Amino acid sequence: MGNSGSAVKVCTDHQGGINWLSLSPDGQRLLTGSEDGTARLWSTADSQCHGHFQGHESYITFCHLENEAAFTCSADHTIRKWDVVTGQCLAIYRGHTSIVNRILVAKDYLFSGSYDRTARCWSVDKEKQIQEFRGHRNCVLTLAHYSSRDVLEEEEEEEEEEEKVSRDLLVTGSTDCTVKVWWVSSGRCYQTLLGHTGAVLCLILDAPNRELFSGSTDYTIRTWNIVTGEQLKVFKEHQGSVICLELVNRHLYSGSADRTVKCWFVDTGERIQTYKAHKHSVSTLKYHAGILFTGSGDACARAFNSRSGVLQKIFRGHKFIINCIQIHNELLYTASHDGTLRIWDIRGICKRNKRLSRLFNNKVGCMPSVAVQGVLQ
Question: Could you say which DSSP state residue 329 is in?
């Protein structure tokens, strides 16, 4: 059944639910965005709040943290950039006409997706809109970015003379059941990926392998060739909406409203593990050191051995859905709609899992396959 854990620290500064949690690339800070219309900056060294970003006129839907700047988007139709040292608002990006629900920072670009049916590209430094991507028939929910240099051969790039100025592409998923790929420089739609029969909730990009994975309310995950637009595989075993995805070493983890996570081997499409025990939808997941961590609508986080599927620990304490999790220095951070950020020590479970992995690697070569599951349990 797994051992229950208690938080080493509970941060209660927010006055509303936390919708997102972002970790800086250097691992020194965390950013939370809340229903109270503010964002807060936390140090991973002392778990203290070191910044309070105020200015949005409605709730914050999503946030993103770089080492020197923080970005937030809001139901007030704007995106803001903040100085992580002074807390000063450095820029306000205006142009969307409805809720901005997702942002993505890549290179010098800031991308945003909105309920106004558009995605937009902004210059991070100049506070200026560079491009608008118009063509979806409903809300833009999720974003991904890549460069054609990552996926196209030289001769294929020569065919795209029109886009020579910039080889950046934006991928958008929408409630109109489609995924679209756009040239950033022109705003032209390069591909429309058709096949889903429900809203596209999540995207994962594997540019080196030219693959895109999309999860949907139609209960499926689909794999696409991002150069040709061809649909490669359909993963159909979930019995509810696919809410979140994570790709690790050609293994795809999918969290669903059916209360399970499934692991798929991407190369064959085979479902190789199902992680159960959740009492509500799986809202977020994160793979770390052979452990699959999940957050759920049942207000609990859980840790599973990723190979065996065995539940190793339950983290109890939140009152409402866990919207996001992050992991740094063997600490698990969980952000919930109850307004709290909770911090959990996972050193013990990580050590235990390393021992199990060593045991597995030593035993698996000399054991019949039917016995492998028993080794890990």
Answer: T
What separation, in Å, do the N-terminal and C-terminal C-alpha atoms of the chain show?
Answer: 11
Q: What is the DSSP letter of 208?
A: G
The secondary element (H helix, E strand) that includes residue 118 is strand 118-123
What are the tokens at 169?
């592409």
For 213, residues 6+ apart whose C-beta sits below 8 A from its C-beta are 203, 204, 205, 206, 221, 222, 223, 224, 245, 247, 252, 266
From CA 181, how far away is CA 228, in angstroms rounded? 11
**What integer is the mean pLDDT of 40-46?**
96
- Concatenating the DSSP letter of every residue in 155-201 gives HHHHTTGGGTT--EEEEEEETTS-EEEEETTT--EEEEE---SS-EE
Dist. CA 268–CA 103, nearest whole Å = 32
Residue 46: name the closest of 306, 251, 343 by CA: 343
Give Cβ neighbours of residue 16 (< 8 Å, ≥ 6 apart): 34, 35, 36, 37, 59, 339
- Helix 369-376 to helix 347-363 angle, to the nearest 10 degrees? 160
Radius of gyration of the chain (CA): 21
Give residue for tokens 């600490």.
331
C-alpha to C-alpha distance for 14 and 277, rounded to whole angstroms? 30
Query: Which residue blocks in the chain are alpha helix, DSSP H?
Result: 154-158, 347-363, 369-376
Calpha distance 79→63 (Å, rounded): 9
pTM summary value: 0.91
Instruction: Render pLDDT for 176-215 as a digit per residue (tens, 0 to 9).
Output: 999 999 999 999 999 999 999 999 999 999 999 999 999 9
